[in-house]
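Researcher: Following up on the earlier apo prediction. This time include the ligand. It's magnesium ion, with the SMILES given after the sequence.
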Amino acid sequence: MTTHSDPGPGAAPAIELRGASKVFRTPSGAGHTAVRDLGLTVRQGEFVAVVGPTGCGKSTTLTLVSGLEEPTEGQVLIGGEPVTGIRPEVGFVFQQDAVFPWRTVLSNVMAGPRFRGVPKAAAKERARDWLGRVGLAAFEDRYPHQLSGGQRKRVALAQTFVGEPRILLMDEPFSALDVQTRALMSDELLELWGGASAPDTAASVVFVTHDLEEAIALADRVVVMTAGPATVKEVFAVDLPRPRQVESVRLEPRFIEIYREIWSSLGEEVRITRERGAGHAA
Ligand SMILES: Nc1ncnc2c1ncn2[C@@H]1O[C@H](COP(=O)(O)OP(=O)(O)O)[C@@H](O)[C@H]1O
Ligand SMILES: [Mg+2]
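Model: Understood. Below is the ligand-bound prediction.
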């Protein structure tokens, strides 16, 4: 008799979408399909970027993975288990900062651990550690309105990483920043993530952006979504060595080659979306 050994929890992909669709009900009662038949696998410690035209369903895809919304059809799995709600091991960074304006920087970063029952002294220590890593050690007593956009984004990153997420979901997190701050934040994100040096312990990342350059500079693989309702059109491996510096990596010939290749897929979907927009305006 043969016995099959248990593949163990390490064998399951970190994130898996299987034929996942999401239909929203509109005020008129009709159904609006936001994403359809999504199939995607993210490995442990992998950095995946999702690109697609505006309004195609990128954010919806993330809300399915986060457990904020349930798929209408299909399955969403984390570590091989169906997602049934928001999980403590999932960290989320949005385009808008999710900081409390009436709390200091330190208190903002402590809030998550405190909420999860970490004693005050330990929460403070962890928060200070992460504030140090994002370069805000000297700013712990400031309030969010006393910070620059980039500094507020660093608070948001510290807030997220202090929870030691196994899964990190990012929805256009840097799109409100100026170009230089954005490049800086991308480099800092790659360092905080640590996937280049410690793939076994690094978080598995899904990073949504409409910016193809940003996607290639950051990711191990780039997923191109179709015009809405989105499904996965093509997946591209980014074989650029790590560690990467986003400002310099984008000048490399291989980067430009990859960019051309992916754009030939993505550009078509962007055009379709634009033409629809023009149709609506007419
Ligand atoms: N909660 C919701 N209820 C109804 N429609 C929604 C909801 N969230 C998103 N949509 C619609 O689903 C589509 C995809 O939206 P979204 O995922 O936000 O796109 P993206 O992030 O790619 O710009 C859009 O047409 C949007 O209007
Ligand atoms: Mg969005």
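Model: The longest strand covers residues 31-42.
Researcher: Noted. I'll compare it with the apo version next.
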